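Schema walk-through. Below, the input block comes first and the output block second. Nothing else is stored per chain. Lengths vary across the set, and this one has 505 residues.
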Amino acid sequence: MEVFFVKKLRVLFLVCLLLFIGSGVAGAQYSDTFLKIEGDPLEIWAANEGTMAAYYQGQYQYYQSDDNESSWGSVLVLDGGSESFPTYVSEEISDWMSFPDDRWEYFTPVSHGKVDAWTIRTVYRAGDSGVEITQTIAYTNGSSYYRKSWVIKNNSDRTFTDVRFIHGGDAYFGGDDESLGHWDPSLRMVYLTNPDPAITGIMGFYGASSSPADHYYEGSYSDVFDYMSLGQLPDTVRDDYHDSGYALQWNRAGLAPGESWTIVAYEKWTAAGLVQVLAPPDRQGAPGETISYTFTLANEGDQETVYNLTAGSSSGWNTSLESSTLTIPAGQTASVAVELTIAPGAAVGTKDILTLTATAADDDSVTNSDSVTTEVIPPKTGSLTVTIEPAAAVAAGVQWRRTGTTTWFNSGATESGIPVGTYTIEFKEVPGFEKLDAIEVAILQDQTVSAAAIFFPEPPKTEGPTGPEPGNELPSTDGGGGLLNMVPAAIMALAGALILKRKKR
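--- output ---
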């Protein structure tokens, strides 16, 4: 009871401080624990214990109370919320929640600062559990989405089971408390629409392809906080306009000592329009790699519509549409795949923007688009070692190389930095040894593939049935003038053998 009273005193102090700071722009009313990314069209605020605020086109998108407290934050559950380990929560959202038996604690701030103008990094602890969370908020100016990531690390000497992380809150999409909830299973995105799609587009929340959400919820804001308090979202959305909020949940079976768990997610907004184009999460890829993106299109109009589709890469890379048209009934959604091939010579660090545009076939004023960013990363590579036998073949000069390359390697040499894929190995021909056909190997990421090739001597050449040329008679060995009998050895043709092994590099 005493601890609970102290927590409430902290909340009361923060409210008084916020009121003292005064009025003005909505975001300026936050306490100095908040750091700000000043972008366009998004402005993002982050507090030192996981609470945040977002503004799109100058309008706050997360509800703020009369005391200017933010209504957006996180919850961490360890061991399924056992009595030994309570639920941990961002302080500023705790007043909206009803925790069972008051078994909860605030996150404890550790560090809080701006990496640069577009990145805020915050570290906070889950009480004395030994679990630490590093939260990174990143924004690319001009984008209508921002990136949230959390690295949850267990610095204790025990393993936690049934670990859950939930993030969300009370929405105020487009300056309107009333929204309709949606769930897109292909994007695993929970999102909102307002009553008039001609005024606002969508506001949505989704995990990256590397960390898709395990559970979701959209409903009355009070229900959102109740489910967050319980540590379990029910995977439902409301199909009527209401005072809405939403949240996503990620689960992990266990978190061992020293182990980290990384969660990456995005929150996005789209332009108004009777057709909505929803891009999937950003991806990374190596030069020459082809990436398939699945876009969702939503018909927010009142009649079935045929849409013409076009896709374009800001870098001029090749794109391929699964279909150039989509027919979508009123109020329904459909998906289309777009393939993007990264140029083989693309520089590492290059960021391409792939944009899909949908336009109504019978009314080109009904159009919209959305984009996804692809970042070029170094190729995924492995290594190859080839051993040649016997030693006589090696001494004679037999070497190996990957077909299409120029460098010959000696037996036992390792070629590193080979892009992942399937290759053929060819061998240098030398006199006295039979030619060995090219052999195929598969290079795996961060592994060394070993191959062994066995070479056999060529069979000796034999004389014809007529004997030696005149004048080239061999001397007699028995004094009788007879020719030396030539008895060629029988030669069996043998094929080389290839043995493939894998080991961790």
